[in-house]
Amino acid sequence: MKPRIRRTLRASWLVAITIVVTGPGARIGLAAPAGKPNVVLLVADDLGYGDLGFQGGRDIPTPHLDALARGGVRCTNGYVSGPYCSPTRAGLLTGRYQQRFGHEFNPGEGPAKGLGLPVTETTVADRLKAAGYATGLVGKWHLGSASQFHPQKRGFDEFFGFLGGQHTYFAGKSPDVYRGTEVIQENAYLTDAFSREALSFIDRHKDHPFFLQLSFNAVHTPMDATEDRVARFSSIEDPKRRTYAAMLSALDEAAGNVIERIRTAGLEENTLIIFFSDNGGPTMLGTTTNGSRNDPLRGSKRTTLEGGIRVPFVLSWKGTLPAGKVYEPPIIQLDILPTALAAAGVETKAEWNLDGVNLLPHLIGKSSEQAPHDTLYWRLGGQAAIRRGDWKLVRYDQTVDIAGARSDARSGPPVTPFRLYNLAKDLGETQDLSPENPDKAKELLAAWEDWSRQLARPLWGPGSLATQATK
């Protein structure tokens, strides 16, 4: 079959809504599509909530991501299930709260640690590969460095990137960039290298369905930027913010390259593109900050305040999802797996115990009376949160409220008592309403405790069996 004919068949994806009753309620899903659209994930790292143009940012132009938002659905209440890197990625790949299988904290670095995404878990790459997709990961992994956790053993046919939690952007400083399982010498600025590799993947697989996850390490520290990009932002006085702007500009350019390649290949109407950040910007006093801003949110990466878990979130699929739509009900990155599988015509099964839901019928307006989630939950050691409607009950790292250096989350930061906020009236989480609404606080606490009891003991970090054994 000629490529143009095959693309036309894939572009003939027709939406058909089916109601599947499971247990006490109804789930709204999509019937199998006529073709298999490509799926592209663009994942930023430590991005500030208010730093993109479509999020209200003004000092750092992000034209390509802004265009993606204008052409798709911008989710104003987009969340991630972890306030920092690895747990969010574990939830993304499995469609399950990562605390269910013990991946509550960042694993240690290096293969000797033997820590990573449990091999008992099945990833979205596994699912799509079984459905006939070519699967590729470009960029950051951070789900285990030992051989059993390698991306190519977790459903990805191809891998180019690094295995740990952070990496220099310049050649020669660190040799551990991989192509597959082989260490290579990469001479390009790393964000540019990731762009090059993503374009190569698209070119090589454009004639059959593909799943590409492009996980940038930008704008995570170290603060590395090319001189020409830094020079563009001479008007920004703060040197860290200036370098951050240059790094974010490189990310935006790389995302734009991918989007343009999809367009020129004639795949725009047959590709679901999803963009989000793995957590909020690290703005908290005592952390390794990167110059990001989470305006208008309070809190930072590593906290369960909105600034740690609420992120920019866009889904775009020309001709299928509406362009320029603003979607307000809360969603979470756990929804990406079932959404991608629905687009691919892969039926999800109850025994997979997914926490995410298929967003497609919600975003196209076929289920406007039903929000994707009644309740969302978070837990990171002693930190906790639950959101139900506009109400949020949260217990967060207390060093947000006091001066001085903070404790590391892996050893258990000091936490506040639970506090109650109404996000519709107080997005900045400034006024604790629990004294005036004790029944609401009790209701949410009981619901969070019921959820928390279902979770596994952490495999590492505070409260884990390994920690207990050393005491």
What does this structure look like?
- By secondary structure, the protein is of the alpha/beta class.
- The protein folds into two domains: 34-363, 3-Layer(aba) Sandwich (Alkaline Phosphatase, subunit A), CATH 3.40.720.10; 375-469, Arylsulfatase, C-terminal domain.
- 25% of the residues lie in helices and 18% in strands.
- The chain has a ten-stranded mixed beta sheet with strand order 9-8-7-6-10-3-11-12-4-13, sandwiched between helices. A four-stranded antiparallel beta sheet has the order 15-16-17-18, covered by helices on one side.
- A hairpin with a 2-residue loop joins strand 16 and strand 17.
- Helix 2 (63-70) packs across helix 7 (239-264) and helix 5 packs parallel to helix 7 (239-264).
- The radius of gyration is 21 Å and the shape is globular.
Query: In total, how many domains does the architecture comprise?
Result: 2
Number of helices: 12
Computed over alpha carbons, the radius of gyration is 21 Å
Tell me the strand order in the biggest sheet. Answer: 9-8-7-6-10-3-11-12-4-13
Per CATH, the superfamily of the largest domain is Alkaline Phosphatase, subunit A
Question: How confident is the prediction overall: mean pLDDT?
Answer: 90
SSE order: HEEEHEEHHEEEEHEHHEHEEEHHEEEEHH
Strand content: 15-25%
Alpha-carbon distance between the termini?
A: 64 Å
